[in-house]
Design goal:
Elements (H helix, E strand, L loop, with lengths): L55 E7 L2 E8 L6 E5 L12 H6 L4 E5 L15 H15 L4 E6 L1 H12 L4 E7 L11 H9 L1 H14 L9 H8 L8 H11 E4 L2 E4 L15 H7 L7 E5 L12 H4 L8 E4 L7 H4 L1 H13 L1
Parallel strand pairs: 3-4, 3-5, 5-6, 6-9, 9-10
Antiparallel strand pairs: 1-2, 2-4, 7-8
Helix pairs in contact: 2-3, 6-7
C-alpha cells in the first residue's frame, strides 16, 4: 500500500524540524497491564499461540506527541529498533519480536502517532513519522543501533538511514522497500498525485476527520473486516489483533487508529527519491520481499528493486508469502534477521 507524504494540516502548529532533537525524558517504565474483563465469548482471543506481550511498556514525549513504546527481552541486552507499517501497531509483532528477543536482543518497538496507544495528532506526514522514529531511537540510546522495519516502517527507516547513517549499524527490511511506480513518465506521476479529484477528496476528508468516529462492532466482526486487507492471516490471529489494537466500549469494539488517518494523500515526498539513492545505501542491508500480492502490499517486487540494491545487500524473495511475511513465517523470518544482526 502506498503512503506518499501528506502535507501538514492547515490547523497544525509548526513542528521543529530537528530529527536529532532529543526526546523528552522517558516516562516511568512499567509492566504491561493485564487485559480488562470482556464478554466470555471474547476471552479466548486474548491469547494466541506463540504470542507474548512485551516485558516493558512506557510512553515518551516525541516533540509534543505521546508515543507508546514497548520492549521485549532483557533491558541490558543490545537494542534493536522495530518499526511497524501503516494502519498497524507494535503489538502486531507479539510473535515475531519475542523470537528476536530470545536470541539475545532488547527489541524496542512503538505505536506510530495516531496508531495503537499513541496519541492522536493534528499533523500526519512522512517527515513527522520520521521525527517520531528518531525520538524513540534517541530515547533508547545515542549510540548507533540496528533496525528492522515492515512495510511503511521499512521505507521510513530507509529514508532516515539515508539522512542520518551515523545513527544506525544495519537494517533488515521486511517487504518495505520504497515503492517504485511502474510509470516512468514524470508527468503521469504528477497527474496521479496532484489531480484536482485527489486533492478535493483529501480536503473533504480533512473537513470531517475531527468529528469522525469508528463504527462499534463485535470483536469477530472487526476481525472479519480486517481480513479484507489481510486475507492470508488466520481468523484467530486477527481476533487477537483486535484485543490489542482496538478498545472495548459500552457499545462494542473500535480500532484505536485515528479516523483522520487514511491511505494516500499527496505532498512533496516521492518514494523514487529513496530508490534512486539505494545503490549508495550506507549500512548493511537485508531486504525480504513477499511474492503474493495483497491489498496492503506495496506492489514492489524483488525484481523491481534488484537493479537499485547495493552490491553488499542481500535481497530475498520468500516463496508463497504475502505482505505480512513475519506473521506468516515468524520463525523463518526471525532466523534470517537474527543471522543478519549477528553478522
Amino acid at each position: 500500500m502506498q503512503f506518499p507524504a501528506s502535507p501538514a494540516s492547515p490547523a497544525s502548529p509548526a513542528s521543529p524540524a530537528s530529527p536529532a532533537s532529543p526526546a523528552s525524558p522517558a516516562a516511568t517504565v512499567s509492566t504491561v497491564a493485564p487485559p480488562p474483563v470482556h464478554a466470555p465469548a471474547d476471552a479466548r482471543f486474548f491469547h494466541y499461540a506463540g504470542a507474548r506481550a512485551p516485558e516493558r511498556q512506557r510512553r515518551i514525549d516525541a516533540n509534543g506527541v505521546g508515543l507508546a513504546v514497548y520492549e521485549w527481552g532483557a533491558a541490558d541486552a543490545p537494542p534493536v529498533l522495530l518499526v511497524h507499517g501503516a494502519l498497524d501497531f507494535a503489538r502486531t509483532f507479539d510473535v515475531f519480536a519475542p523470537l528476536i528477543a530470545d536470541a539475545g536482543f532488547r527489541v524496542v518497538s512503538y505505536d506510530q502517532r495516531g496508531h495503537g496507544d499513541s496519541a492522536h495528532a493534528a499533523l500526519y506526514g512522512w517527515v513527522a513519522d520520521e521525527r517520531d522514529l528518531l525520538a524513540v531511537a534517541d530515547a533508547v540510546t545515542r549510540a548507533p543501533i540496528p533496525a528492522i522495519g515492515h512495510s511503511k516502517g521499512g521505507s521510513l527507516l530507509i529514508h532516515a538511514i539515508e539522512a542520518l547513517p551515523h545513527r544506525f549499524t544495519r537494517f533488515a527490511c521486511i517487504d518495505g522497500m520504497p515503492f517504485r511506480s511502474p510509470h516512468p513518465d514524470t508527468a503521469m506521476h504528477e497527474k496521479r498525485y496532484m489531480s484536482p479529484e485527489i486533492i478535493s477528496n483529501w480536503l473533504n476528508h480533512r473537513h470531517t476527520a475531527a468529528s469522525a468516529q469508528r463504527k462499534p462492532s463485535p470483536l469477530q466482526d472487526i476481525a472479519r473486516r480486517r481480513a479484507r486487507l489481510n486475507p492470508r492471516l488466520s481468523h484467530d490471529w486477527l481476533c487477537y489483533l483486535v484485543t490489542q489494537g482496538a478498545q472495548h466500549d459500552a457499545d462494542g469494539w473500535r480500532w484505536k487508529l485515528d479516523p483522520a488517518i487514511r491511505p494516500g494523500g499527496f505532498g512533496p515526498m516521492r518514494s523514487r527519491w529513496m530508490t534512486d539513492r539505494l545503490p549508495g545505501f550506507p549500512v548493511p542491508l537485508l531486504a525480504l520481499f513477499s511474492t503474493i500480492a495483497e491489498p496492503m502490499g506495496w506492489d514492489c517486487t524483488y525484481e523491481d528493486l534488484v537493479p537499485y540494491l547495493p552490491p553488499s545487500a542481500r535481497g530475498l524473495a520468500m516463496a508463497d508469502t504475502g505482505h505480512f511475511i513475519h506473521i506468516e513465517r515468524p520463525r523463518e523470518t526471525a532466523d534470517l534477521v537474527i543471522d543478519f544482526l549477528r553478522t
